[in-house]
């Protein structure tokens, strides 16, 4: 027994007035005894305290990380706006309203709220009323007997029909002496809060998936534009070689090499179509639309790489909805221990009934037809073969499982942030090196092309340089896409714009 609970708000107490058929002198002591019981009632089982988790002082991979300053500028809510892409923001709005995974999570949350309302109803008395009319009858019977003089006598009874009019009301109230109902409500409330966090996590997951797919699609559009521009250059090279061959300046092998290069690049451009189509279809599903009715027109790519403040590891406990959900599940499991322990103690139920019962309608609602009953019922467990002990151990083991799951969720979240921090920092260094390689490839291509057009080298030398330049251009775009994806992953790993304060106790209104 860990704390004293007052009587639930709104709990009715019999008024010390003279009820019909019940002396007032008997009501006052009963009311006083009832108040004494309620005020001394307690909830068995352990009170919930969130277990400690070692999160570390700071992220290891933040060394050398460029964090935004000041931290007051950290965006909350629509985190995707840091990328500055209007089309992405428009798609995000559709995810919020039409994504079916989010709709499922929202329905589960409403179910959890309804469970809390149903649980709280058990704290109050239940009152019922019933009315009935029955008509019963028996058939006539006959028998044959012989009297003392030997004469056969015919006898029997006539049939009868009876009416029964009934009107009654009943009330019952289980006093929550040991907190079984309150612990149940506590568990259901924590589960509802976990469901709210799960809903927030569904939002964040869908938003992050949309952002990743969208940026990959835009990078493919950029790669397609690069290949189309390269194809035009290769077409020009093929015509130039054909003209040079016509005047006997170049060999036929150079024409074949130019055509091979051109067709290979065209094949790469074609290959991008189905990859882009798959991403477009995935985005359609995320926004709740059939793929056949959805399309994203290619446009100029304007999204920028944001600066993301990592914060402190301990902040993940409040910023990640999946961690909040695991913590609330742990609270719910802890309350179930109290529910299991309350089964060791007796239950006290107050019940009352009153009504009218008569065989004639005219006598139905009259004093002689009235009946009533009032009294408590005490039920105490005596022997169950170890059932309650096993149920308590089961609840304690379930709580230990939730604690381990919570700590594992925290550790996994910490690892995710460390991974994405390391990935982004490494990619930033890689892009600096890649840019130098790209600049060198462009300069080499320019010089080699000038030498070829001046007749100083053959075309085979140009092909090698052009292939290298194209490869570096595509690598730079792929790296940009990877950095954008990693930025989205880091924002999601940090909880997006969500905070645990948004998981408020569910309302019953």
From TrEMBL:
Residues 136-155 have a biased composition (Low complexity). InterPro entries: MdtP/NodT-like (IPR010131), OMP_efflux (IPR003423). SUPFAM superfamilies: Outer membrane efflux proteins (OEP) (SSF56954). GO terms for cellular component: plasma membrane. One of its GO terms (molecular function) is efflux transmembrane transporter activity. It comes from the Bacteria. Keywords: Coiled coil, Lipoprotein, Membrane, Palmitate, Transmembrane, Transmembrane beta strand. Residues 88-115 form a coiled coil. It is found in: Cell membrane. The keyword Transmembrane applies. It is a lipid-anchor. Residues 133-155 are annotated as: Disordered. Belongs to the outer membrane factor (OMF) (TC 1.B.17) family. NCBIfam families: outer_NodT (TIGR01845). PANTHER family: BLR4455 PROTEIN, OUTER MEMBRANE CATION EFFLUX PROTEIN. This is Outer membrane protein OprM.
């Amino acid at each position: 027994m860990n704390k004293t609970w007052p009587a639930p708000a709104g709990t009715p107490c019999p008024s010390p007035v003279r009820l019909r058929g019940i002396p007032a002198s008997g009501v006052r002591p009963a009311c006083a005894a009832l108040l004494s019981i309620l005020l001394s009632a307690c909830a068995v089982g352990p009170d919930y305290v969130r277990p400690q988790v070692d999160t570390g002082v700071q992220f290891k991979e933040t060394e050398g990380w460029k964090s935004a300053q000041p931290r007051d500028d950290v965006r909350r809510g629509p985190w995707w706006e840091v990328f500055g892409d209007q089309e992405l923001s428009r798609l995000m709005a559709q995810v919020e309203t039409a994504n079916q995974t989010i709709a499922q999570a929202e329905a589960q949350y409403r179910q959890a709220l309804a469970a809390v309302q149903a649980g709280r109803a058990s704290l109050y008395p239940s009152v019922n009323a019933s009315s009935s009319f029955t008509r019963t009858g028996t058939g006539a019977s006959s028998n044959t007997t012989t009297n003392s003089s030997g004469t056969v006598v015919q006898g029997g009874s006539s049939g009868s029909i009876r009416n029964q009019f009934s009107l009654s009301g009943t009330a019952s109230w289980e006093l929550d002496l040991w907190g079984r109902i309150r612990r149940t409500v506590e568990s259901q409330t924590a589960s509802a809060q976990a469901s709210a966090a799960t809903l927030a996590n569904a939002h964040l997951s869908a938003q992050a998936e949309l952002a990743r797919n969208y940026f990959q699609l835009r990078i493919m559009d950029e790669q397609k534009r690069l290949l189309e521009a390269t194809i035009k250059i290769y077409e020009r090279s093929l015509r130039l070689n054909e003209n040079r061959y016509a005047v006997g300046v170049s060999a036929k092998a150079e024409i074949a090499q130019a055509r091979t290069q051109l067709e290979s690049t065209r094949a790469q451009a074609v290959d991008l179509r189905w990859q882009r189509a798959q991403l477009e279809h995935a985005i359609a599903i995320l926004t709740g639309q059939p793929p056949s009715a959805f399309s994203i027109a290619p446009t100029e790519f304007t999204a920028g790489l944001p600066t993301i403040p990592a914060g402190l590891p301990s902040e993940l406990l409040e910023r990640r909805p999946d961690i909040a959900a695991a913590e609330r599940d742990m609270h719910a499991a802890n309350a179930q221990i109290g529910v299991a322990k309350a089964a060791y103690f007796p239950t006290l139920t107050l019940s009352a009934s009153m009504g009218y019962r008569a065989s004639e309608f005219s006598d139905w609602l009259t004093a002689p037809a009235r009946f009533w009953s009032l009294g408590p019922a005490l039920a105490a467990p005596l022997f169950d073969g170890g059932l309650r002990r096993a149920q308590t151990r089961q609840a304690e083991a379930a709580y230990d499982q939730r604690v381990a799951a919570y700590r594992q969720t925290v550790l996994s979240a910490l690892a995710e942030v460390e991974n994405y921090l390391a990935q982004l920092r490494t990619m930033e260094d890689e892009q600096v090196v890649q840019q130098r390689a790209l600049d060198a490839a462009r300069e080499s291509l320019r010089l080699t092309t000038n030498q070829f057009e001046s007749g100083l080298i053959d075309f085979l030398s140009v092909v090698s340089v052009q292939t290298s330049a194209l490869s570096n251009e595509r690598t730079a775009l792929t790296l940009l896409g990877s950095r954008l994806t990693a930025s989205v992953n880091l924002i999601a790993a940090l909880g997006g714009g969500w905070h645990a304060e948004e998981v408020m106790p569910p309302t019953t209104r």
